[in-house]
Amino acid sequence: MGLSTVTAKQLEVQRIVDALYKAIAQHRLPPGTRLIEAQIVETLHANRNHVQAALQRLALQKVVTIEANRGAMVSQPTAKEARDIFSARRAIERAIVESITPAIMRKQRQRIATHMNNERKATNDTDRRAIVRELSEFHLMLGAICGNSVLSDILGNLMVRSSLIVALYQRNDVPSCASDEHQQIITALEEGDHENAVAVMLEHLDELEGQLALEASAPEEFNLKQALSD
User: Can you give the residue ranges of the HTH gntR-type domain (predicted)?
Assistant: First the structure.
């Protein structure tokens, strides 16, 4: 009974973490947004203790900042953090790309094709949230299929933190993550050309970082309940 109770609590905390992660990654909760516990409890039909545990976990992962007398808010990465996170992404995504074999690509053919189709549809439309979601999902998909859960978990955290950086520092309103570069990576991996796949990925990340203007503007006010309800 004790074990099942612990497991139930862990699952509930993870559910809350996942909901906040998703809202932050999709720019529904931009940097600086106050995360009011009562609103999270109401919107997610959650226990306050579980919400507090979820916020503490996100704080350890640098996605949320908790300050005395001010509560929790979505983190606002500094310019140095932005550079550090992209440096870490280069290392992690290089390792992920290098571990994906042609056999994995064949096994995951349907999943990859479905994603690339969804990505092309999104980028041909004007829904920024859908574009951001699908372009980010490409990187997460590679992490998921590479067979190394540690690399995948690290990338998941880096991608959420990257979304905060993009929300703060991107020079324009057009997602810099490009679908044609994604297709080049897929083609190279299918052919077993890791050298080219890595080169395109690193160039891709360099371009994304190069489109950042490392001067943050003041965060706007956002509706927490609405963001978590989407």
Answer: 10-77
Other Cβ atoms less than 10 A from the Cβ of 69: the count is: 4
- Give which of 68, 69, 78 is closest to 32, Cα–Cα: 78
Using alpha carbons, list the distances in angstroms from residue 175 to 9, 74, 115, 129. 37, 21, 17, 10
Cβ contacts of 202 within 8 Å, gap of 6 or more: 90, 94
pTM: 0.79
Structure confidence at residue 143 as a pLDDT band (50, 70, 90): very high
pLDDT tens for 110-122 read 999 999 999 999 8
Task: Give the pLDDT score at 215.
Answer: 57
DSSP category for residue 215: -
Structural domains in the chain? 2-76+218-229 (1.10.10.10), 79-210 (1.20.120.530)
DSSP state, 185? H
DSSP lists the bridge partners of residue 64 as 74
| Helix H or strand E encompassing 166 | helix 149-169
CA distance 107 to 144: 13
